[in-house]
Design goal:
Two copies of one chain form a homodimer.
Chain A (H helix, E strand, L loop, with lengths): L32 E6 L2 E8 L2 E4 H5 L9 H8 L6 H5 L2 H15 L6 H6 L1 H4 L7 E3 L7 E5 L2 H10 L15 E4 L5 E3 L3 E3 L2 E5 L5 E5 L3 E2 L2 E7 L11 H4 L3 E8 L2 E2 H7 L12 E3 L4 E2 H4 L3 E2 L18 H6 L1 E2 L1 E8 L1 H5 L5 E7 L7 H9 L10 E3 L14 H4 L7 E2 L5 E2 L7 E8 L7 E2 L3 E6 L9 E3 L2
Parallel strand pairs in A: 5-21, 7-15, 8-26
Antiparallel strand pairs in A: 1-2, 1-4, 2-3, 5-6, 9-10, 10-27, 11-14, 12-13, 12-21, 13-15, 13-16, 17-18, 19-20, 19-24, 22-23, 24-25, 24-26
InterPro entries (chains A, B): Fumarylacetoacetase, Fumarylacetoacetase-like_C, Fumarylacetoacetase_C_sf, Fumarylacetoacetase_N, Fumarylacetoacetase_N_sf
Organism (chains A, B): Paraburkholderia xenovorans (strain LB400)
GO molecular function (chains A, B): fumarylacetoacetase activity; metal ion binding
Chain lengths: 450, 450
Amino acid sequence: MTALNFTHDPVRRSWIESANLPDADFPIQNLPFGAFERNGEARTGVAIGEHVVDLRALRDSGLVEAGSDAALACEAASGATLNRLMAMGPRYSGALRAALSELLKSDAPQRANVQRQAEALLPRIDEIALRLPCEVGDYSDFLTSLHHTERHGRYKGLADPLPPAFKSLPIAYHGRASSLRASGGEVRRPHGQYRDASGQIVFGPAPALDFELELAAWIGHGNAFTQPIPIDAAHEHIFGYSLLNDWSAKSIQWFEQVLGPFLGKSFHSSVSPWIVTAEALAPFRKAPVPRAQDDPPLMPHLRGAFDQQQGGLHLALYADLSTSRLRDAGAGPVRITRTHLDNLYWTFAQMVAHHTSNGCDLRTGDLLGSGTISGADDAARACITELTNAGKDPLRLPNGETRTALEDGDEIVLSARATKSGAVSIGFGECRGRIAPALAVAGRREEIAA
Amino acid sequence: MTALNFTHDPVRRSWIESANLPDADFPIQNLPFGAFERNGEARTGVAIGEHVVDLRALRDSGLVEAGSDAALACEAASGATLNRLMAMGPRYSGALRAALSELLKSDAPQRANVQRQAEALLPRIDEIALRLPCEVGDYSDFLTSLHHTERHGRYKGLADPLPPAFKSLPIAYHGRASSLRASGGEVRRPHGQYRDASGQIVFGPAPALDFELELAAWIGHGNAFTQPIPIDAAHEHIFGYSLLNDWSAKSIQWFEQVLGPFLGKSFHSSVSPWIVTAEALAPFRKAPVPRAQDDPPLMPHLRGAFDQQQGGLHLALYADLSTSRLRDAGAGPVRITRTHLDNLYWTFAQMVAHHTSNGCDLRTGDLLGSGTISGADDAARACITELTNAGKDPLRLPNGETRTALEDGDEIVLSARATKSGAVSIGFGECRGRIAPALAVAGRREEIAA
């Protein structure tokens, strides 16, 4: 496993000027993969500044050396999704990123040739409709922030707010793959059963909507059924990462939850559409925060030398909230969460090793969410439930509005930034969603005896 | 919605004699759909007696009227899975079953023509390798037997063994789609973390393996994202049913479970490979068991006239256990569970309506498990945990062996039979799996402080 990605030359610049802005999410050192619709066709691409390289157009351009690993990668990515490319492992996507870096760098010999084909090759991101980057077979969501878990345990009044298994294994549940959607657009408030303030069980538009700021790993090549992935190989199975907003209807969740979250989560989960590759993030690797002295020792199948040294990331993550009133007044969003990946107790490699330790097969395109990345600091609380101490201390916005949950019209934008001295900082793009009012269907609020 | 399927003529017989045996699972009145491998090719088919009609061969045979609904269905089913056919709704699969019934009936005018092509058209089931009938997007598993739920609540020592939500909504969790497998072959004992008898947390081959006897519904055409399926339309979205064995490693489950079952279930779930269509089961419809007088009234979105009258099935279900010692002695399996679909508190239509009530989209090929179908009677306990009163009363086999959990070499076969006077009884085929010893990988049993 290479610790530093050869395409990360911090001096390199692109002749696409928007990639060179200091706050650009997609400088030439990033080159994340995504899928989109263009002229009614589903395609895949690589982001550079405010543009995207259309990979089918690139395949047909003659710009990539025939028969090379990059050309094979380009061919695999010329369908509607990235699954085929992701399944090939990092060698091919890495070769394609390296070839693109050569074509897009300031002093690229091919620059004029690329520019001649720019209309086909390089649409602007704001002219395409981004889609989920791949077909997701299964989506699993973990619970790996100790702070998030402890706070929720305290809200429930538990004597020991941390579940006994928390420090022995990364707790998780199976999520719903069908309702994953790419960033953007409306998040429809769901109907559901819940207890109202009087304790009555009712069915209607669900109150207590919340966001959850997460990072999620995309599986590249998977494992054979019954064959666990050893911790030392786990990083190689992760193609890359996106932001995940695991929207939650807490009212539904509190009432329904016996075997874990179900309808309280499955109405919508938003994913940032660009997969920032594990390769692009390699320069930002760091050791995970060490376990406390009195924590139980790591079991062998969760303990890997590379993972212990480089299983974390220098990655800051943010959540911004805007409301209808703020937007109507022309005011920008309010930053409500500033957190860091260091707030995870478990690494993604540990999640992969644990997930497959029983022989469960991960498949290309599977998504593994980190769980809400809350930290110990008040500013690092990564959902409204925590930001308001379970509703006791409403969130106060600059315009006087208060929130204990998301209201219709509220919009959450997640973002993240990998930063390390000596490296060019890279971002993830945004994970955006705005709460839309519940549909009128099946919406009668009908009371039954509790 | 037609209450009785026009292809169910109880007098009709097939010229394929194995379909006419009194205990045949697949008489001409059944005609279930499945997928299989034949000469290295993935195909789909329809079972009749001990044979299967190869649907790609049927398409190419000239036996189905060109342009008819049956021909369109046949074309849709000529790929590797049934997804395309299932998505078309019951009209097309129904037309194909009707056309097959005409070709296979004793006095079929085309009989000689079919028989001439029998080698291509009608392989024996024991000469093909059955596969999962379709690609499964998401698999959800419910908890709808009151008896199963209450017993487990009592084992845990709960004051109120039934969760508060149980009678308000069908409780469920998201399952793992990747580890679903067609009936047959080995079920590898998983590794996992669990507490041993001394309370130590250990990692190793998981003890306390159990089976769970379930029925599962396959979704035909799905619903649009954010658009719930009304209870009155729910039955039309169910293409058919299979048996499901939700193998469980209770030792893993008890320790890991915070957000529901995860690795304790995701190592393997077995499905009987034939989809018995909702249409074939129509003659066996019955009213579900009425709710008790003092149960909370059904909410409107879970209350449908058709469902209240015909949402149940005259369906008996069985589990048989054999062990290595029994087989070595030439003894047959022991029937350990005799239960009935009446033991479900919720209907499948209610599961569909509930699942989509928050706007979650069900997709063609999604699988909805009923949960363990245990009844009040001791004989109707549908997992070993219940059969042994959580290990207190070991299961005693005729040869003197005892069980409190499944041991390596133990084999479970699930079966079911729909029966009603005036109708020809139909079955599901078997859902079989045999426990294989844990792999040696990652198998060190390593103790850490509890």
